[in-house]
Specification:
The protein contains twelve helices and 22 strands. By secondary structure, the protein is α+β, with helices and mostly antiparallel strands. It binds flavin-adenine dinucleotide (FAD).
């Protein structure tokens, strides 16, 4: 292969370089900066939040033992409180503080980073890394101005897809697949009409509705082939009339959005071809998925407008700029979190995140079969150890990994990947990076 030589300029160095500004990246950058490090955060897009904002993954899933006992606090809870203050957040009646408006979240995350003194570098793709023996020395970024390098003492890979893991040559796996989704939102839904219809017709409790004192209506509903959902009659009719294809109806989920009357966010469509799983790291696959996904959204949004109570005047207002990627690369680090750890509620001496979110695998190639959720023991939780954020000891020594690319087996990642856990992992990673720098400078 011909070697590509690109001229580059060197930018000033920093203590901690955070790659990627999703939930884990923001948490890592804020905790490193607040604990005394000089931090640069590199983000390939034009906003923070990653999947939460770019893929419209709202709300954050509940990580709590009951309404009183949240399992993630720290920076995660701070972000939730800031969202409420900004008019774009709320807690659901089950105690989940993580309902939010993805657009408001963008500036809330900006504010957290700017207040912490982090240097934000948007619109920069990390394309390469330089290594000296077992240390990362610098990364290379590309933007409209050209190619640049930045050196740092500690690096934290929060790219979700483990780009820095890959570029620095540490061990990882990328051998199994969850389905990808392309999420969207609709405006001008008459939520009161829809909420009242759900309350009247939901006999199984699958579509909870919550009226807040400020007039907001929080609600969620769903449909799959496996269960008698409240919305089933509408799907039966639309499938019979060919208004929906079978793959459009295989997984449907919707949530209203706090502080946004009439706005509904959809956790679908899930795009699963029959012949082979799609690879989020393969550009041909993701390009095909985007076109297919938008066609599915065209049909699903028309279905909502035609069939669902309160949707008559609604319209599509946003298709996610990012593909919703549940998992791609996973570090194989000092400890690989396992399915059994999750299901047995295992605790670790170096536990840095507590979670009771179930193993939630979205099948990647079969449209009609959803895998049941598998939970940790009732009333209990498992932990993610700090070692699941660290490459093996003989590999890169100044790299920490946080977020959905942690060191976990495929099934454990299916639980650990929720946003609350990504926040907790990022927070721990940032603290560790600063601690290691302080330890080195005191020698
Ligand atoms: C469809 C879907 C539904 C989900 N549902 C829920 C849910 O209901 N509740 C819940 O809590 N979680 C849910 N999740 C999981 C959760 O949203 C994600 O696992 C979590 O947000 C991942 O956070 P992260 O910080 O690890 O990575 P990401 O959010 O993916 O952030 C990575 C960041 O790195 C940047 N980046 C990547 N590569 C580079 C590069 N080379 N150079 C520079 N920047 C780069 C990206 O632009 C991005 O901003 C869902 C996920 C999906 C896809």
């Amino acid at each position: 292969m011909p070697k590509l030589e690109i001229p580059y300029k060197e930018l000033s160095s920093c203590d901690v370089l955070v790659a990627g500004g999703g939930s884990a990246g923001v948490a890592a950058a804020v905790s490193a900066s607040r604990s005394g490090a000089n931090v640069v955060l590199i983000e390939k897009s034009t906003f923070l939040g990653g999947m939460a904002t770019g893929a419209l993954v709202t709300p954050m899933m509940k990580n709590a033992l009951d309404t009183q006992h949240l399992l993630t606090k720290g920076l995660f809870l701070e972000a939730c409180k800031r969202l409420v203050k900004a008019g774009g957040g709320a807690a659901f009646k089950d105690g989940n503080p993580g309902w939010f408006n993805p657009e408001v979240y963008k500036w809330v995350l900006d504010e957290m980073c700017v207040e912490a003194g982090i240097k934000l570098m948007f619109d920069n793709l990390i394309i390469s890394a330089s290594i000296d023996k077992i240390s990362l020395t610098k990364i290379f970024i590309f933007n409209k101005g050209g190619c640049f390098s930045i050196s740092a003492k500690e690096f934290i890979d929060c790219t979700g897809d483990g780009d820095l893991i890959h570029l620095s040559g540490v061990s990882y796996k990328s051998n199994e697949r969850q389905a990808m989704s392309l999420r969207f939102m609709m405006s001008e839904v008459d939520l009161k009409v829809f909420a009242e219809w759900l309350q009247k017709n939901d006999k199984a409790g699958d579509s909870p509705v919550y009226f807040l004192d400020n007039g907001d209506i929080l609600l969620t509903s769903a449909y799959t082939f496996e269960k008698e959902w409240t919305l089933k009659p509408f799907f039966d009719e639309a499938l019979k009339n060919n208004d929906l294809k079978k793959e459009d109806a295989a997984y449907f989920q919707m949530f209203s959005v706090p502080g946004s009357p009439g706005l509904v966010a959809f956790n679908c469509p899930r795009i699963t071809p029959k012949d082979k799983p799609l690879d989020p790291l393969n550009n041909e696959d993701t390009s095909w998925l985007l076109v297919e996904g938008r066609q599915m959204i065209k049909r699903i949004s028309a279905f909502c407008k035609k069939y669902l109570p309160g949707f008559k005047n609604s319209y599509i207002c946003q298709i996610a700029p990012y593909i919703g990627i549940r998992e791609s690369r996973r570090l194989v680090g000092q400890y690989v979190l396992t399915r059994d750890d999750v299901l047995s509620g295992r605790k670790f001496e170096d536990g840095i995140a507590d979670s009771n979110w179930p193993i939630d695998i979205h099948p990647s190639s079969v449209v009609s079969h959803n895998t049941p959720l598998r939970h940790p023991p009732k009333g209990d939780f498992y932990q993610i150890p700090l070692r699941s954020l660290l490459p093996k000891e003989n590999e890169i020594k100044n790299l920490i990994v946080a977020g959905r690319c942690l060191s976990a087996d495929f099934e454990a990642q299916g639980s650990a990947r929720i946003q609350a856990n990504c926040w907790a992992m990022g927070e721990a990673a940032g603290l560790l990076a600063t601690k290691r720098i302080k330890q080195l400078s005191s020698i």
